[in-house]
Design a protein that fits this description.
single chain; 4 helices; lipid metabolism; metal-binding
């Protein structure tokens, strides 16, 4: 088996197992957060929005379950933005040329984020308005 090629079951060898693999995963995750924070204004804006919503969630007189749901949907929105940014980076890596499939991929990622934000608004409205 050559380095950089999949083995017999289609997986790429990484050579890391156990705690070492977890540690390296955390390093890559940190790098992803940093790259997204530095390169994506939308991610920074969502961090501010959801950070403010998190503070408000803890100030509101709601049940623990309602508060948890309000926070979870905010985290989901941040996860969707990370994935949307990853899609955009891959599309741009392939080519900066305008192409209908590239546009579709980016538009679909944007639609996913819009859906996530609608979910945040819906959950918060249901909790706050009863």
């Amino acid at each position: 088996m050559q380095p950089g090629h999949p083995n017999g079951n289609g997986k790429y060898p990484h050579g890391k197992t156990g705690l070492r693999r977890i540690f390296h995963t955390l390093i890559h995750s940190r790098d992803g957060f940093i790259a997204t924070f530095r390169g994506e204004a939308a991610f920074r804006q969502l961090l501010l929005l959801h950070g403010a919503l998190a503070v408000v969630a803890f100030l509101l007189d709601v049940s623990r379950s309602e508060r948890a749901l309000m926070l979870v949907v905010c985290f989901i929105s941040l996860m969707v933005e990370l994935l949307n940014s990853a899609i955009e980076a891959v599309v741009d890596r392939i080519s900066l040329e305008h192409h209908p499939l590239s546009k579709n991929a980016k538009d679909m990622g944007s639609a996913a984020q819009t859906t996530a934000l609608l979910m945040v608004a819906t959950v918060w409205a249901v909790v706050l308005l009863g």
